[in-house]
Design brief:
Elements (H helix, E strand, L loop, with lengths): L9 E5 L6 H11 L2 E4 H8 L7 H8 L12 H9 L2 H25 L5 E4 L7 H4 L4 E6 L2 H12 L3 H10 L3 H6 L3 E4 L4 H6 L1 H14 L5
Parallel strand pairs: 1-3, 1-4, 2-3, 4-5
The chain binds adenosine-5'-diphosphate (ADP).
The site of adenosine-5'-diphosphate has 14 residues, from helix 1, helix 7 and helix 10.
Length: about 210
């Protein structure tokens, strides 16, 4: 007899750099969620031999590769930074492939629900459409800046440049179904996670529609 399997219940997790998204994701994984990290998928697609490299080289030339045959991510970032058309070409190649792999992984998941870690969720209606629920990790911009400066040893100007290239805090909050406030200490952050986890478990079981 064929048991019909429901599609996985998908929660989209996003937040600006330094908001605490990775910290939050790790807590959900500890509670039993399956994390699908779209950045990790992007790295896999652009590592030596990666499936996206032939198309990227056709679009941008062989000189986008490092000596070991991976995408030179820093050089690529630099190249698209001031060239929106190039950014669009890059994203048109990478993003559908990232989504396809992420969705395939979610289909294979045995967890009660999956968490898609998508830094660019606010910028991507296509991704939003795959999420039953959108969870945004939020904190004041000053805190984002100081956390990233401490974590990555970057100068303030560099962090501000990255922030300016991302969706704004307001844009992210506008797509949120749920918000985790990470403006406090770690216990304040951690206390918000179990109730959300319970909510997603219940929603996954009863398939409550979003909004
Ligand atoms: P993101 O994945 O959004 O870039 P991280 O989860 O890596 O952010 O958090 C950024 C940095 O701030 C990390 O070094 C993390 O350990 C630290 N951090 C996150 N939340 C808190 C908090 N509530 N209190 C103190 N440090 C935190």
């Amino acid at each position: 007899m064929n048991a019909t399997r429901l599609p996985p219940y998908c929660v989209g997790l996003t937040g600006g750099i330094g908001s605490g998204k990775s910290t939050v994701a790790a807590h959900f994984v500890r509670l039993g969620a399956d994390l699908i990290d779209t950045d990790a998928i992007a790295r896999q697609l652009t590592a030596p031999g990666g499936a996206a490299l032939p198309q990227l080289c056709a679009a941008f030339g062989q000189n986008i590769l490092t000596a070991d045959g991976a995408l030179d991510r820093a050089a690529m970032r630099q190249r698209v930074f001031s060239d929106p058309a190039a950014r669009q070409r890059l994203e048109a190649i990478l993003h559908p492939r990232i989504r396809e792999l992420a969705l395939a992984r979610s289909q294979a998941s045995q967890a009660p629900y999956v968490l898609f870690d998508v830094p660019l969720l606010a910028e991507s209606p296509a991704w939003q459409a795959h999420c039953a629920r959108i969870l945004v990790v939020d904190c004041p911009i000053e805190l984002q800046i100081s956390r990233v400066m401490a974590r990555n040893g970057l100068p303030r100007a560099e962090v501000e440049r990255i922030l300016a290239s991302q969706a704004s805090r307001a844009q992210r909050l506008a797509i949120a179904d749920d918000v985790i406030d990470n403006s406090g200490d770690r216990p304040h952050l951690e206390a918000q996670i179990p109730p959300l986890h319970q909510h997603y478990l219940r929603a996954a079981l009863t398939r409550v529609a979003r909004k």
